[in-house]
């Protein structure tokens, strides 16, 4: 992962929602400040997961280079090493799958929590008016 990808924080969720006429255009300043709290949590979750996945993928790149080198050497002992290396690559692919699955679950939970908070915030003023 290059330095730009590791340090850049995209703002596509807010811009995309705004461009599509989504909720972002109707939020008050207070709601937008609260959104920042959730956005930070969501970005941290995504960033951490993508970094973990990239680390494993980088390891796989190195392992694949070793497999290729061993294969090109045509030395029987090196070729036999490839079995273990390929198993390790396969295990790493499973790790990446698990990382992405966990990331999806975490991100979905954050989005679900955010929606519930918005619903509750909108219901509170209505409930207060009903009590009067």
TrEMBL record:
It comes from the Eukaryota. Residues 1-42 are annotated as: Disordered. Keywords: Biological rhythms, Nucleus. It is found in: Nucleus. Residues 38-115 form the Protein EARLY FLOWERING domain. It holds the Pfam family Elf4. Residues 26-42 have a biased composition (Acidic residues). Belongs to the EARLY FLOWERING 4 family. This is Protein EARLY FLOWERING 4 domain-containing protein. It comes from Stylosanthes scabra.
């Amino acid at each position: 992962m290059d330095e730009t990808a590791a340090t850049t924080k995209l703002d596509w969720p807010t811009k995309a929602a705004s461009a599509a006429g989504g909720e972002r255009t109707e939020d008050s300043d207070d709601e937008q400040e609260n959104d920042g709290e959730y956005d930070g949590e969501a970005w941290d979750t995504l960033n951490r997961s993508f970094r973990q996945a990239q680390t494993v993928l980088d390891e796989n790149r190195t392992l694949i280079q070793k497999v290729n080198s061993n294969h090109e050497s045509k030395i029987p002992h090196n070729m036999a090493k490839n079995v273990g290396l390929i198993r390790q690559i396969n295990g790493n692919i499973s790790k990446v799958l698990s990382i992405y699955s966990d990331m999806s679950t975490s991100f979905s939970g954050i989005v679900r929590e955010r929606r519930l908070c918005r619903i509750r915030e909108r219901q509170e003023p209505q409930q207060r008016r009903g009590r009067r």
